[in-house]
Design a protein that fits this description.
about 475 residues, alpha/beta, Aminopeptidase, Membrane-bound Lytic Murein Transglycosylase D, Chain A, 17 strands, elongated
């Protein structure tokens, strides 16, 4: 009986240990400009160890007491150092993951604890050449290389370059919110915020690139996540004159609707909704995946608030212009520029705004947000608001300042006779909008192009008479 009882007890202990084993429920891959990311979706917290091997190059990850329940056979690692993924269960109960590599890499790993609807996750980054692996952010993890001792946790110091020409371009940093592991808000029909705002950002980029005097920097140029502090740092590194972060709002009540504009606040939120939105957006790093070692930059950003008076004044001025344009195509959720402590806006020397293009949680607005027509309208409204500000208040060393002083004549395209300019109609353009943009009467624009009405088509070339 004792032997039978011992056998039963051992069996029960084995079953209990098996039942408590964490499951790797999904494995996802993301490619960013400076690294490749693999995310393991877990049923609970785990301990793990990284081991690098050479001849051939491999990365081994041992996850203690875990089982893989996801099919990884169809995973593709395009444009990355990863050739393939293999896995096996070790005798001690650990799950061994092996990445076959095309070359030696630096790696970093960290755990993201379960939060809200999100499960525990293990994040492994394969860094491109020149990136620092940093330190691991979880117990039981080891990186394959030491952090770069010269790396600084503070935001990079950027000095504005002085060009020989006094007609430099105005630099616009366009930030499509969320991305990669972080889908943002999800609306009816599983429409994802990260997809909608990226399309609007791309259309906005195209509009600025068609206008002489602008240069665009995309903060996120694909489906991958960028940490909030790094978004600001990328804009500063590009010496941006303006930073706009594009989002789509969400609320528990599906009837909530309207677009809105937000700036940073140094004294607390201007409304309860602004405070809630800022808190939600500031938690994006927990979803998108940023290691604890990166938090120093987020905290350092708080200290920049005291030096932001002039920058904030400019932000509010641009925000007013944006609201005026956005109000022409959508209902405004708030008719003033709201303010709260958005981490992504805490750049001390760049006017910055966060634009909520509508409520993706509202079925009607979700349908608009995923339509090419509304995306084009919204990008045009954002463009018009920013463009009007920089034409009226241009930085002194820019092309627009030279135009305003009368040093040079404005240009919209190849010159024709007598100061007339050629313009190609883009998606979302209206004849009245073009007339307003170039400060010419609508009747003169119609007369110049022999148009009896306002019907125009994409790709059509028209002439803009001298204003």
């Amino acid at each position: 009986m004792k032997r039978i009882s011992s056998a039963i007890l051992c069996g029960l202990l084995f079953l209990a240990a098996t039942a408590q084993a964490a499951e790797v429920r999904d494995v996802r891959f993301w490619r960013a400009p400076d690294h490749s990311r693999v995310v393991f979706d877990l049923s609970g917290p785990v301990e793990h160890e990284l081991i690098t091997l050479d001849n051939p190059d491999r990365l081994v990850i041992d996850i203690q007491g875990a089982k893989l329940t996801s099919d990884v056979s169809k995973l593709e690692f395009t444009n990355s150092p990863i050739s393939r993924l293999r896995h096996a269960e070790k005798p001690d109960g650990a799950l061994r993951i092996v990445f076959d590599l095309s070359n030696a890499v630096q790696v970093r790993s960290f755990l993201l604890a379960a939060s809200g609807d999100l499960h525990d996750r293990l994040v492994v980054d394969f860094l491109d050449t020149g990136e620092s692996a940093g330190s691991s952010a979880s117990p039981g993890a080891s990186a394959s290389s030491k952090p770069n001792p010269s790396a600084s946790p503070s935001a990079p110091k950027v000095t504005k370059s002085i060009e020989n020409s006094s007609h430099r371009d105005v630099v616009i940093a366009i930030d499509a919110g969320h991305g990669g592991e972080d889908p943002g808000a999800i609306g009816p029909g599983r429409v994802k915020e990260k997809d909608v705002v990226y399309k609007i950002a791309q259309r906005l980029k195209e509009r600025f690139e068609r206008k002489k005097g602008y240069r665009v920097v995309m903060i996120r140029d694909g489906d991958y996540y960028v940490g909030l502090a790094k978004r600001r740092d990328l804009a500063r590194k590009a010496q941006a004159d303006f930073f706009v972060s594009i989002h789509a709002d969400a609320f528990t009540n599906p009837s909530a609707n309207g677009s809105s504009v937000y700036a940073l606040s140094k004294r607390g939120a201007t409304s309860a909704s602004a405070r809630i939105l800022a808190q939600r957006e500031n938690e994006a790093d927990l979803v998108g995946g940023v290691s604890l070692s990166d938090k120093d930059q987020v905290l350092a950003g708080v200290l920049t608030d005291l030096s932001m008076t002039a920058t904030l004044d400019a932000s509010l001025s641009v925000g007013g212009q944006l609201l005026g344009e956005m109000g022409k195509i959508s209902r405004l959720h708030s008719k003033r520029v709201e303010q709260a402590g958005f981490a992504v806006l805490k750049s001390p020397d760049i006017p910055s705004l966060l634009v909520e293009t509508g409520f993706i949680s509202n079925p009607h607005e979700a349908g608009k947000l995923k339509s090419a027509h509304y995306q084009s309208q919204m990008s045009q409204a954002i463009y018009e608001g920013i463009d009007r500000y920089f034409r009226e208040s241009p930085p002194p060393d820019t092309y627009f300042a030279a135009v305003k002083r009368g040093d040079i004549s404005p240009a919209s395209g190849p010159a024709t006779a007598a100061g007339v300019r050629e313009y190609v109609i883009a998606n979302g353009d209206t004849l009245s909008g073009i007339a307003h943009r170039y400060n010419v009467p609508l009747q003169d624009l119609q007369r110049q192009n022999q148009l009896s009405g306002s019907d125009i088509r994409v790709g059509q070339k028209i002439q803009i008479p001298a204003s």
